[in-house]
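pinned: reference chain
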Amino acid sequence: MKISRILHAGYVFESGATQILFDPVFENPFSRNCHAFPDTRFDPAQIRALRPDAVFISHFHDDHCSMESLDLLDRATPVYLYCLFDELFAMLRALGFANVQALAVDAPVTVGAFEVIPRRALEADVDSMFQIRAEGLNVLNVVDSWMDPQTLEQLKPYAPWDMVLWPFQTMREVDVIAPSRAERGPVALPEEWPEQLQALAPRYVVPSSCQFRQEPWSWYNHAMFPITYRQFAQAIGAWLPSAQVVRLNPSVSVLLTADALTPAAPLPWVLPAGPQDVDYEYDADIVPPPTADIARHFAPLTAEQAALALDFCGSGLLERYADMELSEDSYFATPCVWQLSVYDHAGAVQQFRYRIHGDSIALTDDEEAPTWTTEIPLAKLYAGLALGESLTSMYMRIDGAPADADIVDDPLIRCLFNDAFGAYQAAQLRRLGITI
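pinned: its structure tokens
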């Protein structure tokens, strides 16, 4: 079985004449501001010439299901997708793929020499993982999900696994959105990992997923990614002394047999750029720069784009908020004043102050100090409204929220992302000139 890394959670599996792609992304940056780490380029002409026997997509997140990447592939390619929402299947068919199939947990799919079995992830309404079998070999691709305890019991009888592709990096999204809540001190790997990996007893462990960083100037690069390749390898060495940690950088290929793992010819259409054995550098004491400084890194919006974003603050946000139902235990169930600060490309700010009580919201000129504040660059607010920008790349900053309050109750987060399924993929299709 030949296993090759594309990028992030993307892999090519080959056995005999059968070739399967998993979560293929052929872009850098991808998902708007995920920059390949290590740096990587792609040869679109060679990708267009590929004729894979199937594509498997583990879930709908932007960094796993990209319409602009899939647009490079032959439309006769069968696409197997784990997703509970019909909209994404419709988008894939609108892109031109005629054979789009829904994956079901524990239901095997046979493609040539391979049997692929979707397995239940901890968040079964979002993502899945894959058991991949061929040539008498068993590989578990955990993608970037968390292991479900019942699934672990299902997988134990297959131990020892020949290889596990394990998502080695945790991401501190809340820490960068609400820095006042950031954890300090040494970084510990999740406490459930040793038991899970020891139960699987893999011969080879690949640190998988999370082959990206944000823009080179971004403070997120030292605050969101706390685990290094080095730390992960050391931990695996302690937990699984007989296992071998195998780092697969983009394009790197290996040949897995029952007896050994050997290097194989790299993917010719994935083009490494610059140093490849780079590692993360986490700084628990980093001080986030002001949002005004962050906003200066983004290009000016057109007058029309700026007007769309600012008009949203004055009217559209109020309409969306009023249409949603707030939970009774939300921070905003009690009357409060919320302030939204929007920074343009020059660092200039426009502030909007709202009085909120439950599902009721109104602009206010009161001088009462806000108890919850939200900051965002104007360019990112526009991107969230029109381009399907994801929350972790918007450089939103929340302050004043008490420790027991749920960050996702933030009014801007709710108004941008409530019922916003597939916004990124829909924006991609619009850029490709496809309407659905």
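why pinned: The radius of gyration is 23 Å. The mean pLDDT is 95.
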